[in-house]
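Researcher: Can you fold this with D-xylitol-5-phosphate in place?
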Amino acid sequence: MNLILPSIFAADLMNLKSECDVLYEEGFQVLHVDMMDGNFVPHIAFGPEQIKNIKKQVNMKLDVHMMVSAPEQHIASVLDTGAEMISVHYESTPHIRFVIDQIKQHGRKAGIVINPGTDTSLLKPFLNIIDYVLVMSINPGRPNQVFMEETIDRIRELKVMIGQRDIQIEVDGGVDESIASQCIEAGASLVVIGSYLFSNNKAHVKNLKSLEHGERKDERK
Ligand code: DX5
Ligand code: ZN
């Protein structure tokens, strides 16, 4: 099954709880939470204490996307939030193996994120330890960017490289319903969606949900 992960960076923060409750009622299972430090990326958003509070308030699992420099200095507090999935940028540290080991030792799912300019082959040494790869389809840290078309080929490359291993491919940035379908077709099974999902358009929510089960638009009545 594919999963659509709402990215709360695009949510209305004043109504975060009710927006998340609506998505939970619709059947979304995992929330994507962007942690930004104003250094690795220009914005500052969602520190560990806030994430911990969100975790207490919502019924969904959390996928924390760490966009921070020196993640090895923050991983303990991110683990303390209780997040079930944690990903760390390949570009953010020379200590990536240490961070991944910490995540795995705590029984969580571990992912490595790659920026659009990072070669997919650099992930080869990690294929025996990670649970997912997050492919950025925009420059990280900024909302409302346009999906980079070459991401589809990068997903295909990763799919071949992963082979039979139990590793999921996640995509994040500038995704709408039709792009989500293309990403899934190329091999992604975790699709992060921000502004398109939090646009107060009920049809977007329903259509995206149906993609989780591989339904095509033309198959629906
Ligand atoms: C951007 C974040 C994304 C962002 C996606 O760096 O990692 O999770 O919220 O938002 P959209 O789908 O609006 O591009
Ligand atoms: Zn993200």
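Model: Folded with D-xylitol-5-phosphate in place. Helices lie at 16-26, 48-57, 75-79, 96-105, 151-162, 177-186, 202-211.
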